[in-house]
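pipeline/complex-builder :: batch 7 item 3
reading input block
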Amino acid sequence: MNSVHGELITIGDELLSGRVVNSNAAHIARHLILAGFELRWATVVGDREEDITAALIRAMQRAAFVLATGGLGPTEDDRTSAAVASTLGRALRRDPQSWDILDMHLKKANATMTPGVAKMADLPEGAQRIDFSRPRAGYAILDLERPLFFLPGIPEEMADMLRDFVLPTLRDRFPGQKVIHSRVLRIFGLRESEIGARLSDFHQLYPDLRVGYLPHFPENRLTLTVQASGREVADTILNQAALTVGQRLGELHIYGEGEDTLEGVVGRLLLEKDETLALAESCTGGLIAHLITNLAGSSAYFDRGMVTYSDAAKVTHLHVPAETIEQYGSVSAEAAEAMVRGLRKETDAGLALAITGIAGPGGGTMEKPVGTVFLALLHRRGLRVERFQFRGTRLEIKTVAAYTALDWIRRAMIDDSFFS
Amino acid sequence: MNSVHGELITIGDELLSGRVVNSNAAHIARHLILAGFELRWATVVGDREEDITAALIRAMQRAAFVLATGGLGPTEDDRTSAAVASTLGRALRRDPQSWDILDMHLKKANATMTPGVAKMADLPEGAQRIDFSRPRAGYAILDLERPLFFLPGIPEEMADMLRDFVLPTLRDRFPGQKVIHSRVLRIFGLRESEIGARLSDFHQLYPDLRVGYLPHFPENRLTLTVQASGREVADTILNQAALTVGQRLGELHIYGEGEDTLEGVVGRLLLEKDETLALAESCTGGLIAHLITNLAGSSAYFDRGMVTYSDAAKVTHLHVPAETIEQYGSVSAEAAEAMVRGLRKETDAGLALAITGIAGPGGGTMEKPVGTVFLALLHRRGLRVERFQFRGTRLEIKTVAAYTALDWIRRAMIDDSFFS
């Protein structure tokens, strides 16, 4: 499909001992493909210098570019730079800029330079540091026919450098790649098999388009991919296809695209509608509040959350009548409604949401098995209370319950019939 | 460290496109190590026959045994057996037993033989089928100096064959292997570079021991690995080494071992000491409550949490005097203390913890930059309030702040001098 074949070398004993699953490799592969490059070989080596060297030599023989991750840190077992230097027959030289960045960082943290950290400033001759704003290891060697990239093994740092430096550099170096254009639709509330069934004739409707299903608990992601020489042609096809998906699955099931998150969409809508939110969480134990407050600026619309785990807390803070709990149980539609009405009394927030349920693994009964969850949402437009039955581990039930709550808030704000 | 070094070749386009994370590799590595064998090289190739062949040739040159997974199925892109045959210069021969098993299986399912399925009965000469009871692909070639194993890519099938056939066969073939024993120490509150510096002479003290550093934000994991003929010898060395690590890093920095989590250790201690916990969270936004309630049975010791994001919520629910907020700001030692004292009034919980800070990226000032966090912990033994300065993204600051809070609760329960 593509003539530019790269090789990935992931470095680290932890990858060969099975302590860590090599998720960096999958991330890199996915992003290279989207940028029009193909990963043809992937090699994993431990921290032995000779093995890193052997892998590098081999990769430089057969691949058009080489990307390596790991082994750039401050400890004894970080030997990537030494291996690179000996492979290329270049000296390790202290890079003044790297030194300054590390030194400044240490001073800010009131720490002193150690030989280990100092080592991170020693780069093979001709290497070009990637990140100049932070003390992140990572460099490229671009004065060779085949460019070499050495990135940290820490996933966030690797991902940033891949996106901001490696991919643009590869595009410069190998221009004219037929770029693969794609759109990711984010879906909540439909199973993968259900989505598949509703789109079963999709490849007949759009023969040039590739559809990828990516379950990402508790949501699903649908990737539409098309190869085209220009963005406009690609966009026309992708837009049409996304429309069809919306018709087939129901627009409300698609909560966003690309890097959207459900909590991000909710936050954007709350801001747009000038609404504020208060939460009363029992079974989700603070997870909804945590997701909401992961967003910068969430204090503009998030008022407060109460994690009323004990019955006493439900009575004290949410004015749930003790009799309600006694008669119906703290996991009931009645308790959820009492929680949300009590919460409403305490705050001026426009939207009040309460959730109570059994996350398990204990506490289930015949009538209310593990995974039983009640949601209540109160707004000046109305009140909605509903029972759900989820499945999975404790964390899975917490997670799907929290997403369902976020999805309710989203729908309440865009669906006029939500409360009717 | 070990004299028997194996190579793993995982085969499949899906591994190089990032559609699938290579979890088979981690599984195989873990089980080989526990059985005394070391995986020294791991190679990933796609479905191209020439790439499989190249990887095989290379592996047979350097490894004492080769294990490959994937490419044994019925479809066009399953080319492992063809590659094996051509690499070894052996013919593909129909294996009657494999044919019978496949045929029987198809008949049971009322299906007929297809050329694809028939291909699965064609094994390289000298190959020995692994599973005789089910229609699972997978064979070994044991008439060579270096044994070769070809397993299916389907995780369950691979795992069964690894356990029931590959490991016993390797033990037969390479008797007297020293088994590798390891211990993982979980550390919070020290940087990786700091740990490295304090243990810089460790390899001199324990020359037979291998130390692995595994940063796992916001904690660090230290793996001690030793090769020994018996568990007792290994344990003696590991225990001694763990003691030394404790002395060097400070026992209190090591919060657990193996699969321990900080919230799990905190939960265990709360149960043991018969304590209950209430939380008032501002900057962590519910994350501490979420971590605590991820554990089954946490309702026994977790009373409630308040996510008092707005000042109004701090005043209403935690009785923080409006003047305190006005005079010192809601991110201040005074506000943290007022929050924890107010929380204490609302609940009978033995431990009350309050946290307030600036998670960023906005909201920082010269005096209180992003990452400024105040913690307050109140217990009948005393009150402790402290200021912290964290760094990172919003989520990183939330996370390290939440871990610091959990670590305070842990220390408060095991360190007599915590409140003094």
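note: The radius of gyration of chain A is 26 Å.
queue -> next item
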